[in-house]
Automatic annotation (TrEMBL):
A Gene Ontology BP annotation from the UniProt entry: recombinational repair
The keyword Lyase appears for this protein: no
Binding site for ATP: A32, G33, A34, G35, S36, G37, K38, T39
Name of the featured protein: DNA 3'-5' helicase
């Protein structure tokens, strides 16, 4: 891929350079459609300002900050700007933590307030406990919180990890999004320090950036003196997370920029993109490339019966597409082949053989850090498998000591003499051989067998909660473990270790499946979008409602009449994101309980003039 910096200039690039040449305080919002080159313009603006103001930024030890939505996006932008040290690229969590990390005593005070709130909450629970058992359990939790609170006083250093462990001075992912905006809004010194370190801040995917974060950045803009530039790049039509702000509340003096072009998609794909958008905000995009360069492409809409076997019908669709478009990539699972966008991880899990694992992390009311963490590949109970256990089972004999030295607690802690290190390495190697036997044997409960074995032999570093679970009387006995966390861990440990291989393939993006949310910002040559409410939908989404195939609920109607976001709005935006990921060829496959009614609805909604059916598939 050539760098985005080399993309031809658009009017937006020129407008941004004019803004970047200004001094003093200024801001802008680029709000433009899918594939319009927002990220490309962002990268070009970064390169421009880092070149133009290099001397000044260096002299003042300042950087240009760019906040992205995912680690993948951050890595791509880093590449685009050739790892220029003047450009600081980070996800929102990393950025926010970096801002406040030096303000240790404020972090400590914040944790103290959280624990005080927990203690107040638990006292209420104790007072209201209906049974002696519930009371006893709440009292035990109160004692744990109390010990955490006591431990905090001697804490010298506060850190940040996936999950919180307040007693050990660690705040979690979710805490960051609450704590830092609050600190930015209430601590003028912090705001000053941030603005002098980052006189320019860009935010990509701004529509899905948490409201409080955006508000705190705007507060920063309002309060700082001197040179400061705040710029947002987003698309309100692509807001797919409920926590996102949607439209940026721009300050009156900011410049608003739209990009009407689409540089990504073929003509046929763009027509579908525009049809989906038409009933949303009505904006329509035009091909960005010249007539000769924009390919015609292909786009098809299939309506298949909801009782069709999904695996067979998907093979048939892919074969049909390969034949019709003379493009064998449709039947390939390799990168560059077909990308199949499913609504939920559960559907990918079924197809890739990790349904039990998925179910374990999605028990009803599972803590979000576990369920969402599983979906993202960051859940702490799984981390030992991804980082240590599976690598130890797959690595060559020569590579094993390196993995052990990096992760094994027994090889890291308390070694004072070389002889001890040798002995421990021999013991750890023996434990690895036993682990390999456990994993090769596999079967129900082998996840638990592997985890207990590696923990016992110090091969893995477990998070405080996992340690508490595996060793309830050990070092982390004061950790408070919710019932739901306990339930997830029990179910996880009951799983078959073989399921982790399909999961790994999925989160490493090596399978053709991706979730519709997970494709944010990406693009693929050949995309299939599955619309399949009968296999299950995300909360607050329904393609059947969007397409007029299911009745709106009373809540939908109430939301609609009061101008609030509705199930239909959310589903349309998600569909818009999905169809606009396709560069050349696109297929939408709707599984419908009533195929004829679905065809009529699609035509009436202007989404497809001539949807194809199972008969068309069998006719070739
Ligand atoms: N000025 C340009 N000239 C030619 N191609 C461009 C230009 N800008 C962007 N592109 C190409 O268009 C595609 C989409 O660009 P980009 O990812 O920057 O868009 P985006 O608006 O951020 O997308 P989305 O919001 O849909 O994720 C990329 O393949 C990119 O290389």
């Amino acid at each position: 891929m050539t760098s985005r910096i080399e993309a031809p200039d658009t009017h937006t690039d020129r407008a941004l350079r004019e803004i970047l040449d200004r001094r003093g305080k200024t801001g802008f919002v680029v709000n433009a459609g899918a594939g319009s080159g927002k990220t490309t313009s962002l990268v070009k603006a970064l390169a421009y300002v880092a070149g133009d103001r290099r001397k000044q930024l260096r002299a003042r030890t300042q950087q240009v900050a760019c906040i992205t939505y995912t680690e993948v996006a951050a890595a791509e932008i880093h590449d685009d700007v050739h790892d220029d040290p003047l450009v600081y690229v980070s996800t929102i969590h990393g950025f926010l933590w970096d801002l406040v990390a030096p303000f240790q005593s404020d972090i400590g005070a914040w944790i103290e307030r959280q624990l005080a709130a927990k203690l107040a909450e638990i006292s209420e629970k104790i007072d209201k406990a209906g049974t002696p058992d519930k009371r006893r359990s709440a009292e035990q939790d109160r004692d744990r919180y109390q010990r955490q609170s006591d431990g905090l006083r001697s804490m010298r250093r506060f850190t940040y990890g996936i999950g919180p462990d307040y007693g050990k001075g660690q705040i979690g992912h979710a805490d960051i999004l609450k704590m830092v905006p609050h600190m930015l809004m209430t601590k003028p010194l912090l705001a000053k320090v941030v603005a002098s370190r980052f006189p320019i801040i860009f935010v990509d995917e701004s529509q899905d950036t948490e409201s409080e974060v955006v508000k705190s950045l705007i507060h920063l803009y309002r309060t700082v003196q001197g040179d400061f530039l705040l710029g947002f790049f987003g698309d309100t039509m692509q807001q797919i997370y409920a926590t996102g702000i949607g439209r940026i509340p721009a300050e009156p003096d900011w410049t608003l920029i739209n990009k009407p072009e689409n540089f990504r998609s073929s003509r046929q794909v763009l027509e579908v993109v525009n049809r989906v958008r038409a009933a949303g905000d009505g904006d329509q995009q035009i091909p960005g490339r010249t007539d000769e360069v924009t390919p015609e492409g292909h786009a098809y809409f299939f309506v298949l019966p909801a009782d069709a076997d999904r695996v067979t019908s998907m093979h048939t669709v892919r074969r049909w597409l390969a034949q019709r478009t003379s493009n064998d990539a449709w039947t390939s699972d390799a990168p560059g082949g077909a990308k199949i966008l499913v609504a939920m991880h559960k559907l990918a899990a079924r197809r890739l053989g990790f349904a039990d694992l998925h179910a374990a992390f999605h028990v009803p009311k599972a803590p979000a850090a576990l369920s969402a963490g599983f979906d993202e590949g960051t859940a702490w109970p799984i981390a030992p498998f991804l980082n240590v256990i599976l690598p130890l089972c797959e690595a060559s004999a020569a590579a094993i000591p390196r993995i052990l030295r990096k992760h094994s607690t027994t090889l890291r802690d308390g070694i004072t003499e070389p002889g001890v290190a040798r002995q421990r390495l021999t013991a750890a190697s023996e434990a690895v051989r036993e682990l390999q036997t456990i994993v090769a044997k596999a079967g129900e409960g082998s996840v638990g067998d592997a985890l207990r074995h590696t923990y016992k032999h110090g091969l893995i570093e477990a998070t405080p909660l996992l340690s508490r679970y595996l060793d309830p009387d050990g070092e982390h006995k004061d950790q408070v473990m919710g019932e739901k966390t306990q339930e997830v861990l029990e179910k996880f440990l009951d799983c078959d270790v073989r399921e982790l291989y399909g999961y790994l393939q999925y989160i490493r993006r090596e399978s053709p499946y991706s979730t519709q949310h997970g494709t944010k910002g990406a693009e693929f040559p050949n995309v299939i979008v599955l619309l399949d409410d009968s296999e299950g939908t995300l909360p607050a989404h329904s393609y059947d409602k969007l397409l007029g195939l299911a009745e709106l609920s009373d809540t939908d109607r109430r939301n609609k009449s009061s101008g609030k976001d509705t199930t239909v709005d959310r589903s349309r935006r998600l569909l818009y994101v999905c169809v606009s990921r396709a560069r050349n060829e696109l297929a939408i496959v709707l599984y419908a309980t009533n195929v004829d009614a679905a065809i009529l609805s699609l035509k009436a909604a202007g989404l497809a003039d001539q949807p194809l059916t199972a008969d068309d598939l069998s006719a070739t």
